[in-house]
Amino acid sequence: MGLAASRYLSERSIDHVVLERGEVANSWRRERWDSLRLLTPNWQSRLPGFQYDGSDPDGYMTMGEVIGCISRFAATSRAPVRAHTAVTGVKRSANGYEVATSNGDLRCRTVVIASGACNVASVPALAAQVPPSLASFTPFNYRNADSLPDGGVLVVGASATGVQLADEIVRSGRPVTLSVGEHVRLPRTYRGRDVLWWMDAAGVWNQRHTEVDDLMRVRRLPSPQLVGTPERTTLDLNTLSAIGVRLVGRLAVVRDGQALFSGGLRNQFALADLKMDRLLGTFDKWARSRARESEFGPVERFEPTRVPESSPLTLDLRKGAIRSIVWATGFRPDYSWLQVPVIDDKGHLCHDGVVVAAPGLYALGLPFLRRRKSTFIIGAEDDARDVIDHMAGYLAKPAV
After folding, report:
1. Over the chain, what is the mean pLDDT?
2. Beta-carbon neighbour count of residue 396 at 10 Å?
3. 397 CB neighbour count, 10 Å cutoff
4. Which pLDDT score is estimated for 395?
5. What DSSP line would sit under 287-344, residue for residue?
6. Confidence at residue 400, expressed as pLDDT on a 0 to 100 scale
7. CB-based contacts of 264: which residues, under 8 Å, 6+ apart?
8. Range list of β-strands (E), 181-230
9. Domain 122-327 in CATH: superfamily?
10. Measured between alpha carbons, how far is residue 249 from residues 89, 207, 319 in Å?
11. Of 394, 269, 377, whose CA–CA distance to 41 is shortest?
């Protein structure tokens, strides 16, 4: 996201620097598991003046390919990146901001916070009650199933990360229990096209933040149950249960070594199925309104999520059946370095789209900033353009 903003800053001849705590594409290099691929098809991997030009537009990049793509963009755009420069503090100054880094301090009129939404694993407080004999992992320190101890695994969270890791781990031969809370179910393909093609074509990706009723809730929605594979596989709870993953409810509490799960799986499943069907109906309506029905396969509806015949409400974590827990419970930004009063009491950045509630302060890469696609690579171009348009107007005014 920062590199996209840099491209537009360079086009306007605005002096700037991009600070990177590690190497270019550092989080992709250091903080992803081995088998991860992008959820978005390759043709959606575009940045300002730069787009995928490989031989597999409908495929999904591996981590190595993502790193190569971002590195090429940084090189071709001649972004002024200062690598291995960690930001340790940002505070207001008389004419803008003072930025403290591991390689000295900087002064500037404006700052773009482009550190993203996935800096820290969001592990619930109840994790502290898990018996210490169990190995604990998050997506930041999980690399592959071989890094886990032998024996059963409890995966907590059933969004994109949780279902992907549950699938990989159960295929390694380990018994897997998946704790399921609120989730977003999507097929990988619909009527012969990638479901994200439909999101783009039907205008869902470009839905603006001013066009939704409950923006804060939408920003908190879990990532959809998708996986990028050469086979364009759909990975949902039915797929997982068919290969032996045991489904249980949301992990509610851990007490005296007992994991207690909420009931209501049937309701969770029904709600996710209903929302999926509504979205698919939106795609169908769009195709009809454009008289494009003949371009696609027939209308599809998918089998409802199957409710397990039995789903335990408790699990004794002391008996040895579960040897490790993977916390796939989401991520959150890290603003510990930001010394400007723009963080609310829940730790969220106060902003109106890309414009933060402090003069000359902006944000990129957070959920649904200006558009539904804001957190994805495909969303960087439009949001970055909005940031720099606003910033150019701000910089044109005298400093006060």
Report:
1. 95
2. 7
3. 8
4. 96
5. HHHTT-GGGS------PPPPPPS---SEEETTSSSEEEEEE---EE---TTB-SS-B-
6. 63
7. 249
8. 189-190, 193-194
9. FAD/NAD(P)-binding domain (3.50.50.60)
10. 41, 32, 20
11. 377
In whole angstroms, what is the distance from residue 364 CA to residue 112 CA? Answer: 7
| 184-222 per-position pLDDT tens digit | 999 999 999 999 999 999 999 999 999 988 888 889 889
**CB under 8 Å to 8, separation ≥6 — which residues?**
48, 384, 385, 387, 388
Neighbours of 91 (CB within 10 A): 12
Res. 170: pLDDT tops 90? yes
| Domain layout of the chain by residue ranges | 2-119+333-395, 122-327
Q: Which CATH superfamily is domain 2-119+333-395 in?
A: FAD/NAD(P)-binding domain (3.50.50.60)
**Whose structure tokens read 């619930």?**
124
* 63-76 helix and 2-11 helix, angle to the nearest 10 degrees: 20
Residue ranges of alpha helices (H) inside 144-194 are 160-171
Fold matches, 2-119+333-395 and 122-327: yes
Q: pLDDT digits over 218-245, tens only?
A: 898 899 999 999 999 999 999 999 999 9
Q: What is the rounded CA–CA span in Å between residue 119 and residue 217?
A: 20
Tokens representing residue 249 in the block: 């409810």
Give the model's pLDDT for residue 171.
Answer: 97
Closest of 11, 18, 17, 60 to residue 39, by C-alpha: 60
Residue 399 confidence (pLDDT): 74
Q: β-strand 18-19 against 81-82: which pairing, if any?
A: parallel
DSSP 91-112: EEETTEEEEEETTEEEEES-EE
What is the per-residue pLDDT across 25-52, written as a single tens digit (0 to 9) for each? 999 898 899 999 999 999 999 999 998 9
